[in-house]
Amino acid sequence: MTAPSRWRLEAGGPGYPAWLADLGDRAPRELHGVGVRAAVTGLEHGATVTIVGSRRASSYGLRVAERLARDLASAGVTVVSGMAWGIDSAAHRGALAAGGTTVAVLAGGADVPYPPSARGLYREVVAAGAAVSERAPGVRPERWSFPERNRIMAALAKLVIVVEAAEPSGSLVTARFAIDGLGRDLGAVPGQVGVRTAAGTNALIADGAPVIRGADDALDLLAGVGTRAIRRPGPSLDRELGVALELVEAGATSPDALAAAGVDPPRAAIAFARLELLGYVRADEAGRYTRTALDAPAADRPDP
Questions:
Q1: Cα–Cα distance measured from residue 120 to residue 127, given in angstroms and rounded to the nearest whole number
Q2: 168 Cβ partners below 8 Å, 6+ apart?
Q3: Residues 249, 206: Cα–Cα separation, whole Å
Q4: Cα 46–Cα 149–Cα 86 angle in degrees, nearest 5
């Protein structure tokens, strides 16, 4: 398996998410990234949800977060979170299970998995999506850098969902910043009365936050009532890549399989590398390629 690519996006430059400018003077001057660059440069604000919650989540909260992220990713939504233990990690796992795109916003360098014990999850995230940070590569996270990264998590998405949160908590800071500082939509998953990790989310609902019972509620807020899927067209493809992508969708999982289908062997390996860079496929630890949820523009499909 090839090492994940590393890249940098400058504020105002190509691929930098324009809505980060809503942070004003607090907008990051640059984003360092590891993984699929197109997972960030191709982000659509209206098809992105940030899911946050307690590190000490209940089994109920973990199940809800994973199912919610899985169903949203299956509907074409990019899931953003912070890769912390608990709700954040469950959200990333759910998106990965659906073969969708997920972006982790880290408090240290984008190349520094945190917590260190989440290295396995980190490898999966950067294979299917990306890890990003405003901090330089190699920098270790510090206590103050976690609330700082939360503002980026809130700004990247149109909708922020809090699954479980105590009072007070970093998740509530993210939620309040999303609605008060950025004007983002906010939803909360209801929890059991009297449970500490549900106190914050239940308080948000009491204050007027929409209830999130599942992906359908989130899609209603994100794209309008009745929406059940969001189409996310990817970057343009030339004819050669369009043919290769059709073969992947037909079951080709390696350059050898493409070659067996008639693609010139040296071009087959190049095709997979380009498709991975553009976000259409991802490689697992065994080197097998699988299709992501990103749609190819209709005009790029090869002629029948």
A1: 11
A2: 200
A3: 46
A4: 85
Q: How do the domains of the chain map onto residue ranges?
A: 6-223, 239-300
Q: Which residue, chain included where needed, has tokens 């609330």?
A: 147
If you ran DSSP here, which 8-state letter would residue 181 be given? I
* Structural contact between residues 103 and 27, judged by C-beta atoms closer than 8 angstroms: no
For residues 162 and 56, is the Cβ–Cβ distance under 8 A? no
Q: Say how many CA atoms lie within 13 Å of 27 toward its Cβ.
A: 18
CATH architecture of the domain with range 6-223:
3-Layer(aba) Sandwich (3.40)
What digits encode the pLDDT tens for the residues 61-119?
999 999 999 999 988 899 999 999 999 999 999 999 888 999 999 999 999 999 999 99
CATH class held by domain 239-300: mainly alpha
The Cα 173–Cα 191 span in angstroms is 18
Q: What is the DSSP string of 209-240?
A: PPB--SHHHHHHHHH-TT------B-S---HH
Strands 78-81, 6-10: parallel, antiparallel or unpaired by DSSP? unpaired
**Cβ–Cβ under 8 Å, residues 155 and 22:** yes
Cα angle 73, 167, 79 (rounded to 5 degrees) comes to: 10
Distance CA 68, CA 79 (A): 10
Tokens of 286: 């065994």
Tokens representing 74 are 């299956």
Distance (Å, rounded) from C-alpha 255 to C-alpha 272?
A: 7
Q: What is the pLDDT of residues 241-297, one digit of tens each?
A: 999 999 998 888 899 999 999 889 889 899 988 998 887 887 776 778 877 766 777
Q: Are strands 185-188 and 159-162 parallel, antiparallel or unpaired?
A: parallel
What is the per-residue pLDDT across 33-62, written as a single tens digit (0 to 9) for each? 999 999 999 898 889 999 999 999 999 999
Contact 46, 17 (CB under 8 A): no
Cβ distance 99 to 293 under 8 Å? yes
